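INTERNAL AUDIT FORM
Audit reference: QA-55
Scope: verify that the stored structure record matches its stored sequence.
Auditor: D.O.
Record contents follow.
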Amino acid sequence: MATLREIKQRISSVRSTGQITRAMKMVAAAKLRKAQNQLIAARPYAHELNNVLGHIAATHGEKHPFFSERSGNKVCYVIVTSDRGLCGSFNANVLRRATTEREQSSNGKNFLVTVGKKGYDQIKRQELPVLSYYIDIFNRLKFKNAQDIAAPLIRGFLSKKFDKVQVIYQEFKSPVQQKIIVEQLLPIVPVLPETEYAFSGFVYDPKSKAILKRLAPMHLNFQMWRILLESSASEHGARMTAMETATDNAEEMIRTLVLYYNQARQAAITKELNEIVSGAEALRG
């Protein structure tokens, strides 16, 4: 049976842990608000950019290499995880889905690009080849990070090093809900107009071919930026939820330990009283 001192030390240790997790929850909540605001601002632009791209591609039928479907099965998987842990099953779920996608690949000719230190560490432990990796970018996330990630993917696709680029990441739904998404980045799958006459009467200046040439790379860069924002907001939401759960567990453990301490203290007092009474009875006898 643990001594009273050991129980008190245990209570103090759990209380300190609870204070740390509570502070981490508050930090994650503050970061989540900032990431969520950035994501809310980026989503409409990304959506409309995709719509405009789809309308131009559909109504003018321009041939562009970013839209060309290929019969090959060489796939580049971009796995987006976090740089830090303590965010529940956030990284594990993404890596598990990435493994499933790779195993379902028909001929196994695939390439791996990791964004985030946790994903890179896990892939290296599995001794899998990594085409490129990006770590420590989420602390100061900038649009240039998205451009740096998208540029080699575009070059690899145009040079036919791989036939498809798919991004695996967590989409932000709410602080307590994230959804794993496998999104095809290349070739671009444009959102086609809902009706044949949706954009009738539009005149493009410069020509649609020139617009498409400039718009397609912009689309890829911004979609990658949106994906990074989705993952960042999801990470902070998952960490906030995990730290809240850890704080609740610490408080429950403290209540249990305090009850156990009081019971042990009462038992010790009762034992001392019994010893005093027994001693007094022996003296009188």
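Auditor finding: record pair retrieved intact. The longest strand covers residues 164-174.
Action required: none
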